[in-house]
Here is the input.
Amino acid sequence: MSEPGWNGPRHGWLVLRRELAVEAASRETLVTVTPYVAVLVLLGGLAFGPRPAVLAATAPGLVWLVVLITAIPLAPTVAVAEQQDDAWDLLRSLTTPSTLLVGKVAAVWLWLLAGWGLATVLTVALFGAGATGAGIAGGLIGTAGIATVTVLLGTLLPAATRRPALLAVLLLPATLPALVAGTQTATAGVPASAWLMLLAVFDLLTVTVTWAVFPALLED
Amino acid sequence: MTDPTATVPAAPTAPSAAAAVTLTLTGVTREFAGRRVLGPITLTLDAGALAVAHGRNGAGKTTLLRVAAGLLTPTAGRRACAGRAVYLRPGGGARHALTVRQALRHTAALTGTPAAILAEVGRVAGLTGALAERRVGELSAGEHARLSVALALVAAPTLACLDEPTAHLDPDGVAHVRAAMRLLITRGTSVLLASHTPEQFRDLADATLSIDDGLLREAPE
Here is the structure.
């Protein structure tokens, strides 16, 4: 694989730009994530309703559950979709593992942020949940870690034989810290700083582990 | 096991034939689940040289190309490549949602290839006009194969490993691929290609490598 040297950040941006161009042309993530998020929030409302106080109180946890579940259909966009188009080999040849990782994580982060934003807006509008600065910060930080885990497992996916089952088994427990801490940052009356710190540590750990193993995962 | 050592020098007319070596495989083997699929193979490819690997299905051609391109790590032996290597199958290299022009531009951006070269590549590969605005997923097999070779040109690699680049192509398509390949060699790119029809490249090739059971069965012609 090529070594772009100081061009690394620029190459990461170029990978992201390619992802955005594919999305702009196909709308695949949009039509996957948007209905997914909307349906999950509505189903959550039906499951926890109809008392408004209960809906508002459970909204932060529901939002993070929706984010985690949304990561599952996003994982195949990392490598499986590339392989289906037979574009993965050339992309791997033209980038370093680190720049490929940066670009892919950035793309999945954007889609997860969009899903988190939509879920938050829906819970505010439908359930009367509040949106706080700490909650928004938690969303920004927590989705980054989930995006990193999603890219890690999405890269493993082509080699997995029982794909959806394996992904669910691996992805959901690995993102448990984001679910718990993200929920707490958005819950009224809970001091958020410690939970935000936990989210930052979660991000650091996921990025470090993924950075270390990603080159090996890219080999056939 | 036989292990003929193949050295593929560039033609004297190649501009980069100043004895620079692009690829060296030394005693390379590759196994899958404990089964040897390739090697041991020792192969040296000079800058601007073109070698055609041929053999029956399952002989190890694709594995050789993927090891040479760095996509597969050898189980044993050593691979050395001076610069960027790419591996392309006909129809491969680009996301299907993108247009031909977008696919070429994104590749050019990643490799720093000047935009001016894109026009030349498009012309040589026959990917101009309305065809350049078509989505990759809507291309015919022949058009897609031409795009793959065009991507190899835009990527400007040191080594291009092309797997069956003229498979299922009509004579016009073969002519475009051959023209693109000639341009690759002219620029000093070494080309290692696998083909069931090596005679299509006889005039361009510096060597023909016969592969059987993962081994080079004879010294290059």
Q: What stands out?
A: Chain A is about 80% helix and 0% strand. Chain A touches chain B through 26 residues (CB under 8 Å). Residues 97-127 of chain A form the longest helix (31 residues).
